[in-house]
């Protein structure tokens, strides 16, 4: 049965919306519109949605001048978020990722966007990767662990114990949408909750040290 004109139009709008949500094009900054290379492994790891990245950049632009910030991107995948922030002006980004295919494509994307001098890759799993970050501090730390990952408490504790977050710095944690009454993964560490937003099944928590 052929769909009605209205049904077809609604289906088309839905398809266009989903295309934008899952787009691997950079949304902001000097590299806006450039499409990142990807892999099957990266797609299965659920890269941060374009709408979420764009909203996150808007929030952070209102909180701080990105130009002077040093960033740490945990569970970086192909670098979608860290590269978005580099495009929007952060000073540098350290990417932490363990998957070989993602690492190969991450290197390709960094080179493609000409961010080699602003980037460093730590090719280790967490929390083991923290040993390679000794002595470093960051103004902005982004973490997007797999939604089934249960190491949030351990990872945040390690970040704070190793003083990776500068005083006054921001930690951004992406997680599955939280059920009513369920504590947020960033609670209980003495950090100030600056912003919490939900986008479909994704929740973003921005806390400040």
Q: Overview of this structure, please?
A:
This protein has 209 residues and is α/β, with parallel strands linked by helices. The protein has a single domain (24-208), classed as 3-Layer(aba) Sandwich (Rossmann fold). It has helices spanning 5-21, 40-44, 50-63, 80-87, 100-112, 152-161, and strands spanning 70-74, 92-96, 119-122, 138-143, 165-176, 192-199, 202-208. A 7-stranded mixed sheet has the order 3-2-1-4-5-7-6, with helices on one face. Helix 5 links the parallel strand 2 and strand 3 (119-122). The longest helix is centred in the first third of the chain and has 17 residues, at 5-21. It is globular, with a radius of gyration of 18 Å.
What's this entry about, in short?
The protein has 209 residues and is an alpha/beta fold. Helix content is 32%, strand content 22%.
Give the mean pLDDT: 84
The oligomerization state is single chain
Separation of the first and last Cα atoms: 58 Å
Strand order of the largest sheet: 3-2-1-4-5-7-6
Low-pLDDT runs of 5+ residues are: 8-22
Overall geometry comes to globular
The CATH architecture assignment turns out to be 3-Layer(aba) Sandwich
Secondary-structure element string: HHHEHEHEEHEEE
Helix amount: 25-40%
CATH fold label: Rossmann fold
In CATH, what is the homologous superfamily?
A: Vaccinia Virus protein VP39
In percent, how much strand structure appears in the residues?
A: 15-25%
- Give the helix tally: 6
The largest sheet is: 7 strands, mixed
Report the radius of gyration as a whole number of Å.
Answer: 18 Å
């Amino acid at each position: 049965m052929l769909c009605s004109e209205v049904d077809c139009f609604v289906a088309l709008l839905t398809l266009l919306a989903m295309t934008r949500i899952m787009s691997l094009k950079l949304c902001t900054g000097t590299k806006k519109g450039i499409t990142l290379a990807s892999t099957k492994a990266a797609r299965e790891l659920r890269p941060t949605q374009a709408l979420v990245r764009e909203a996150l950049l808007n929030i952070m632009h209102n909180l701080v001048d990105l130009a002077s910030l040093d960033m740490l991107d945990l569970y970086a995948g192909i670098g979608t978020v860290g590269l978005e922030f580099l495009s929007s002006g952060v000073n540098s980004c350290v990417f932490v990722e363990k998957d070989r295919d993602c690492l190969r494509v991450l290197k390709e994307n960094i080179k493609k966007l000409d961010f080699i001098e602003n980037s460093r890759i730590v090719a280790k799993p967490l929390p083991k990767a923290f040993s390679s970050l000794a002595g470093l501090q960051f103004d902005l730390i982004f973490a997007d662990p797999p939604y089934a990952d249960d190491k949030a408490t351990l990872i945040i504790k390690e970040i704070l114990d190793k003083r990776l977050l500068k005083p006054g710095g921001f930690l951004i944690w992406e997680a599955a949408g939280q059920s009513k009454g369920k504590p947020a993964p960033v609670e209980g560490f003495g950090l100030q909750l600056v912003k919490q937003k939900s986008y479909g099944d994704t929740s973003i928590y921005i806390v400040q040290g």
